[in-house]
Design brief:
There is one protein chain. By secondary structure, this protein is mainly β. It has 3 domains: 35-117, Sandwich (Immunoglobulin-like); 127-223, Immunoglobulins (Immunoglobulin-like), CATH 2.60.40; 237-319, Immunoglobulin-like, CATH 2.60.40. 6% of the residues lie in helices and 41% in strands. The strands form 6 sheets. A 7-stranded mixed sheet has the order 21-27-26-23-24-25-22, with no helix packed on it. Strands 12, 14, 15, 18, 19 and 20 form a 6-stranded mixed sheet that branches. Strands 3-4-10-9-7 form a 5-stranded mixed sheet, with no helix packed on it. The chain is elongated, with a radius of gyration of 36 Å. The N and C termini lie far apart (134 Å).
Length: 322
């Protein structure tokens, strides 16, 4: 009995010793720099909420494609005492770099990355009315776009042989509109855009993304060249010996692969120098320094482009003396 009392006493003393040696640390509260609510308010009939992840610090917004949204206009609710760095402004749905920084009352910051996702299983059923086209031409693609917004439109062409990638000409208008003549699709639309003047000939697959949906047009596009022509010039061309002359292509044509330009004066043929600044929309040539001055009418020029037949044109020229 005596031994049992001793054992209990020793056990109690051990417990007190352990408690006495345990260091108690004060709990450090988390900074109040969190976003509590993120909602999209620029829809007339509904509100979209963002999913807030305070571990990875992301805000994910799922945008139904059928709304055809080009921007979101968010409202943000913060923890008490927190402030948001900067203004809350509308954000393009194409923006993949937007962030929000929240600063706590103690000055500690947290930065959230905004992630916008547009998903749909509905096919666009893309097709083109013609598979043969020329560089710089207007391209029309028909499909079930569900919206006339071009904000989320991305489009490029992949050459089936070389795998080179080309893009649409952003310097010219791109539009999506309702198709008023063909009703084969649930919601038939027409996308119109221009090909870049620099595109090479060949067959291309058209890759298109719109409102979160990505498809390749069923039939490949064949880009081909037409034989170059030179536009007429109705007024006399004035130039000095050794000077430059610029020539435009004929309507709907391009000046592809210029090889040589010759001019004949008084029975003498002169080889003109094609200048490096020439392009498919203008060919620049330099006259020799020894061409004779004078006023000439119906001067024969011969232009050679690639493997096409030579292009013959006549111009009136005034070659002024030095």
């Amino acid at each position: 009995m005596y031994n049992k009392k001793i054992n209990v006493f020793v056990l109690i003393m051990f417990v007190f010793a352990v408690i006495a040696c345990t260091k108690t640390e004060a709990y450090e509260p988390e900074p109040n720099n969190r976003i509590l609510e993120f909602k999209i308010t620029n829809l007339s009939d509904t509100v979209l909420f963002g999913a807030i992840d305070n571990i990875d610090n992301t805000i994910t917004v799922y945008i139904p494609f059928y709304y055809g949204m080009s921007v979101i206009d968010p409202e943000i609710k913060l923890e008490n005492g927190a402030v948001l760095k900067g203004e809350i402004l509308p954000v393009s749905v194409k923006d993949t770099t937007h962030t929000y920084t929240v600063i706590s009352s103690e000055g500690l910051s947290r930065t959230y990355k905004l992630v916008m996702l547009q998903k749909s299983d509905m096919a666009m059923n893309l097709f083109i009315s013609t598979t043969n086209i020329y560089p710089e031409s207007l391209l029309t693609i028909m499909g079930d776009f569900m919206s006339t917004s071009t904000e989320t439109l991305e489009m490029f062409f992949v050459n089936k042989v070389t795998k080179d990638t080309s893009y649409i000409d952003l310097n010219k208008p791109v539009s999506i509109e309702l198709n008023t003549t063909i009703r084969d699709l649930p919601h038939s639309y027409l996308l119109r855009t221009y090909l870049r003047v620099e595109m090479d000939s060949g067959q291309y697959d058209i890759h298109l993304t719109h409102l979160g949906r990505t498809e390749v047009v069923k039939d490949p596009l064949r880009i081909q060249y037409r034989p170059p022509t030179i536009a007429s010039v109705w007024s006399p061309i004035t130039v000095k010996p050794g000077g430059e002359i610029g020539f435009n292509p004929g309507s709907g044509r391009l000046l592809i692969d210029p090889r040589s330009v010759q001019m004949t004066l008084n029975g003498n043929t002169y080889d003109l120098t094609i200048l490096p600044k020439s392009n498919r929309k203008m060919i620049y040539v330099q006259l020799p320094a020894d061409v004779p001055a004078g006023n000439y009418t119906n001067v024969p020029f011969v232009f050679k482009f690639g493997e096409w037949n030579p292009v013959n044109a006549n111009f009136s020229i005034i070659i002024s003396a030095e």
